[in-house]
Write a structure and sequence with these properties.
Layout lengths: L1 E4 L18 E2 L25 E6 L6 H17 L4 E6 L4 H13 L4 E4 L8 H9 L4 E4 L9 E5 L1 H19 L5 E6 L5 H14 L4 E7 L5 H15 L4 E6 L2 H13 L17 H8 L6 E3 L2 H17 L4 E2 L5 E4 L5 E7 L2 E3 L5 H5 L6 H4 L8 H6 L1
Parallel strand pairs: 1-4, 3-4, 3-5, 5-6, 6-7, 7-14, 8-9, 8-10
Antiparallel strand pairs: 2-12, 11-15, 13-14
Length: 379
Amino acid sequence: MSTRRFAPHRRATAGLAATAALALLASGCAGLTTTGGEGEQETQSVEEGFHVGLLLPELQTARYEAFDKPYFEEALNELCPECELSYANADQDVDEQQTQAQAMLTDGVDVLVLDAVDSAAAAGTVNEARSQGVPVVAYDRLAEGGVDMYVSFDNFRVGQVQGEALLAALEEDGNEDGQIVMINGSPTDPNAADFKAGAHDVLDGAVEIGQEFDTPDWSPDQANSQMEGAITSLGVDEIAGVYSANDGMASGVISALRSAGVAVEDLPPVTGQDAELAGIQRVVAGEQHMTVYKEIRPEAEVAAAMAVALGTGEDLQLDGYEITEVEDANGEAVTAVLLDVIVVTEDNVLDTVVADEVYSVEEICTDDYADTDFCQENL
């Protein structure tokens, strides 16, 4: 399988080899195939191969270049060795992603796999693909415009487990009556709205929310500034915990707390998401209370299986995954797979990200973290 990269100045930071064969097929499950829309879709074959375009949204979050892209490429190669993959990362630029998508459509891609920078703005790209008979898989975020299939995680549940973990930490510290700060994700990302809703479902009525922010572009710098404002408004000693929607923003939150004079051992519990290496390191160092581990390899594998099913016109069959439906912004049903998530604290780092070979103990226990209890016990 050949791979072409659009916007060649953006390069992947890591690539991981497959450790097991895919249990994903494109055949035999009746009633799950959808077409590419207004245009006439010309189906292809696995034997001859076809052209798949993968569009990822940003570089602020480490997962996309380090995991999503290489895992998807590996899975597509396993399912369709003769397929060609074109890849681009928009670096959080809506216009850039639209340009990248148009370039791929002009270049003749047969299927688009789209993780939208802005799900509403992506409707134009989806509609253009449909007009050319090119089916679209919405990856991680449900783009508007009438996509054919969608794979992500149960994002409402992500917010719930973050909220539950924060409440448990507050109860353990005896700070249930304290105020918390909520640092939510980007307002242009529909997943962020689901995380936020799930967190509120758990936190509302159980704890006082002293300050709350939505954070443009999931920016750690913006999160840092927001947290500084919350510290000024509430007083650092009045903040019992912080809901941070992801690990990158948690880094900005913790930096603001440390700059306000809070010692590591006195940091309030701070949540996170994505199980980034830096986030895991903060967890083992006692700086960040938890993160949410979303197994990206299965997500990428399912997306590749969806792309092959749509490209070949075959029905979609997935071994071991529940296929369901979700409603898009227009109320239309979209075939979907929603994956489970796992809470990671210091207690189960070994059983999750290390056991799954996302990171080794040596990668976690760099010099800055070698003195932590986790590293002392496991190196």
